[in-house]
Amino acid sequence: MFLHRIHLDPRCREARRDLSDPYQLHATLCRAFCPPDRECPEGEILWRLEPETDPDGCPRILVQSRTISDWTGIGVKGWLAKADPPIDLKSRLKLDSLKIGQRFRFRLRANPCVTRNSKRLGLLRLEEQEQWIARKGHLHGFSLPQLPFFDLTEAQRERIDVRVSQEQMLRGTQHAGNSIRIFSVLYDGVLLVNEPAKFRNTLQTGIGHGKVLGLGLLSVGPIV
């Protein structure tokens, strides 16, 4: 499992097109991991457009893949400004020796939602978004620390310590011309591993819906 950090050149017309349509960006990224005559296997990559640009003003994208990339497969001159060396996550994170209680910094852009009457509805309230990531953590082998509670004059309500920001409605166009929309938020915080095997699998498969739109990549880093 490899993590790639790439930088797109905003002066490139095709790069600007992809940055404005996450579905198109996913299709372009897949060309770096699959021969041009084959479809990208489901789950081959997870990716996320980072909210921060690099010092040169180039948008940055994290791509997690099962295999090493071949960026020449993109086939568009000037699309890629720079690609940092890939990181072997199995070695960097010592995934074979994860321990219960181990802590990591994490970032996740996801689609917090519920299904009602067969419709998927985005969760717009902060409290609901926090509860969503807490439930996902329970399902996927990790938990988030509780916020300390100091105000004894109010009814106590447990809250988790996580930053929720960057609410966005992502829009894309599929090859058939169908428009798709999905609500997303960005989570940042610290997590604790509860079930190492389940957590390791979550790192590989991601969390929630909308992975072809750049959602679901749970990126983690050691706490030093």
Helices and strands in order, then pairings?
Elements: E1 2-8, H1 13-20, H2 22-30, E2 45-53, E3 59-65, E4 80-83, E5 87-88, H3 89-92, E6 103-110, E7 113-116, E8 119-122, H4 126-139, E9 142-143, E10 162-173, E11 179-193, H5 196-205, E12 219-222
Antiparallel strand pairs: 1-3, 1-4, 1-5, 2-3, 6-11, 6-12, 7-8, 9-11, 10-11
Protein architecture, described:
With 224 residues, the chain is of the alpha+beta class. It has five helices and twelve strands. The strands form three sheets. Strands 1, 2, 3, 4 and 5 form a five-stranded antiparallel sheet that branches. A hairpin with a 5-residue loop joins strand 10 (162-173) and strand 11. The two termini are 22 Å apart.
Helix content: 10-25%
Major beta-sheet overview = 5 strands, antiparallel
Structural class: alpha+beta
Strand residue percentage:
25-35%
Distance between the termini: 22 Å
pLDDT below 50 for ≥5 consecutive residues: which ranges?
Answer: none
> Quick one: overall form?
globular
H-E order: EHHEEEEHEEEHEEEHE
Number of helices: 5
What Rg is obtained from the alpha carbons, in whole angstroms?
18 Å
Task: Give the oligomer, counting copies of the same chain as homo and different chains as hetero.
Answer: single chain
- Which whole number gives the mean pLDDT? 92
The total strand number stands at: 12
